[in-house]
Amino acid sequence: LASLLRGRELAALIEAGVLERVSRMDPPPALGVVLAGDDPASASYVRSKEKACARTGIRSVVVRLGSSASGREVVEAVAALDSEGVVDGILCQLPLPGRADPGLVASAIPPRKDVDGLNPVNVGRLWRGEDCIAPCTPAGIMRLLAHHGIEVRGRRAVVVGRSHIVGRPMAAMLIAADATVTVAHSRTPDLEAVCREADILVSAAGIPGLIRATHVREGAVVVDVGTSRTEKGLTGDVAFEEVEGIASGITPVPGGVGPLTIAMLLENTLKCRAARDSHSLHRPAPII
Ligand code: ADP
């Protein structure tokens, strides 16, 4: 049976480190969150982030906007958080309501305060393998793999999903760690065959039961990023009972990747704070 790659213990270790570092900071670091709309999942994610900040001594400031908020209003809320100069990091909880453009909002977050790593400056720096603030979920997955001694270098990785917050940055990080990477998505023919190539399979599609036993090579490591809310509670992309007999390692849902995402958000907030103190991050890089 696959070994269980649990995230909670590692997340607790990381949080302890954050708490210790925060205790030496005066004033404490602060995270600004813009929550627009009334999506219950978004509200619950923001609550988890507030709680994690409270546990580690980070101040959190949540700006709530109604479900009729436009992209422009979200951008204005970000600008206000920035100009008040109180918060070190800023994020907008996604999805945005209505037709608000998440790309415009990401561009409005100053790269030095961009704790979700979605500003094009951070995206570009990530793909270039430069110092940057990287999206929390894939950063947490890299930490989980390292913590369990799972070698990435030279191995075949398949990422299912090409979102800006998970799939794409996951591929960038796996490339930076010397994996051979394939990105599959909703238009990929024969997903099974593609996934069966993987030594490391990361699924971030948000479709319960998408990854079956037939998708998994014997001994592969399977990371389940899916978080679908069903009657049975939070459900991943992976048909766990089938796959755990084939994989060598598998993340549970819940308790796998989720807790690490939050832990990485706290670390990113400290990274923004440190950059603010030292002006180090995003010093212009040489052109050549
Ligand atoms: P997340 O934020 O967790 O990455 P999104 O809903 O934004 O989730 O993105 C889901 C991704 O999963 C998309 O990139 C989409 O192309 C991919 N996807 C959806 N359905 C399938 C499928 N049947 N096979 C492979 N990939 C899929």
Written overview of the protein:
- This protein is of the alpha/beta class and 288 residues long.
- Helices cover 40% and strands 16% of the residues.
- The strands form 3 sheets. Strands 1-11-8-7-5-6 form a 6-stranded parallel sheet.
- The chain binds adenosine-5'-diphosphate.
Strand arrangement across the biggest beta sheet: 1-11-8-7-5-6
Helix content: 40-55%
Spans of at least 5 consecutive residues with low confidence: none
Q: What's the total number of strands?
A: 11
Q: Which sequence of SSEs, written as H and E, runs from N to C?
A: EHEHEHEHHHEHEHEEEEHEH
- Sheet with most strands: 6 strands, parallel
Structure summary:
With 288 residues, this protein is an alpha/beta fold.
Question: Tags for this entry?
Answer:
288 residues; single chain; alpha/beta; three-stranded parallel beta sheet; globular; six-stranded parallel beta sheet; binds adenosine-5'-diphosphate
